[in-house]
Amino acid sequence: MRFMPLSFLSGGETLAVSIFNSNMQVLMTAGATLSEKNINRIKQFGIQSVYIQDDVLLKDDIDPDAEPIMDIIDPKIRQASVYNVKKCIETFDLKVKQQKRKLKYGDYGMYLAKDLTGISKSLIQEIMNSKNTNISMMNIKNAQDYYYEHSVNVAVLSAIIGLEIGLKITELENLTYGSLLADIGNHWLSTELLSSPNLFNEAEFNEIKKHPFLGYDYINDNTIINAHIKNLILQHHERLDGSGYPKHLTSDDINPLTKILMISDVYDAMTSDRSYREAHSQIEAIEYLMANASTLFDFELINVFVRKIIPYPVGTYVLLSNGQRGVVLNNAVDYPLRPKVRIFGDSRNSEQHKFVIDLLETKNITIDRIIYSLSA
Q1: What digits encode the pLDDT tens for the residues 56-106?
Q2: Domain spans of the chain?
Q3: pTM
Q4: CA quadruple 128, 130, 136, 140: dihedral sign
Q5: Residue 35 pairs with which residues in a beta bridge?
Q6: Which residues does 18 contact at the CB level (< 8 Å), separation at least 6?
Q7: 75-306 CATH
């Protein structure tokens, strides 16, 4: 299957991965044939990209032993986690409002803590049971529930880094739990602002920058959640050089767990469709993180994280530095930027079509970028 922005679809493609909302309702089932009508329906949910099944042309070309594009965790568990996070936070919000009218505080913080602890532990266990924690799939999110889906994704990515560097289980649980709550301050920002189709202006961005303080104060006032988790909420937009917000902390003042969360948060945000842009590719997100290692992000953590990402999953169309177009057949272990690529000519029977380049051996050719069509 291949990741495709809706803007490149012409109709007739087959949906490869079902699309859900966070109430666990199927918006469109895998196997459905995409038409102009249902493409427009998908767009109404703020979704700008989908996974489609490989073209018939490619079925015999993909290496049968190649690792397919797969979610790190069971998609059903992911969707259930999104649903449960949304449910427990919305219930908590409602109960806090009721408590405040009765001048009571903190009672329902225990329920929130219990629910989120359970979700965190189930995600960690699912990742620990996974045979492969390489990140080859970009998860499709709908705009209506973006922040809940984003929080689960960030929790999963953070847990992968945490496991890779050998965090203790209590640290992993704090990290995953804090990732689920990191953006809770967005509840106090207007829906219009969060779903704006335009890039934020300075005044709007100043409003956005309030959400770590708002989330921290809300959790601090109404729960007995530990300081590590509260610091994750407060600090997740800080940067090592002091250019982040809300306190402009520098490296030594930032919680070590937050340095993991920062990376996961940026990666998932970049590779997600937003109301004002389509998702960036995995390679674009990798390049951004690597370019800012040691300045914005921890260098060693970036190295750990990017080794887990497969930026050109099997089936991806690519443009090579020599101008040829092809499809990724297989990925080299430990060398994700140097896959095997089958070159495509004008005819399936042409010699050019049969030509395979192993970029691990052919050092003078690189992948220029991901493309969405093999025709010129």
Answers
A1: 445 555 566 666 788 899 988 999 999 999 999 999 888 888 776 655 555
A2: 75-306, 316-376
A3: 0.91
A4: negative
A5: none
A6: 26, 27, 28, 29, 30, 75
A7: 1.10.3210.10
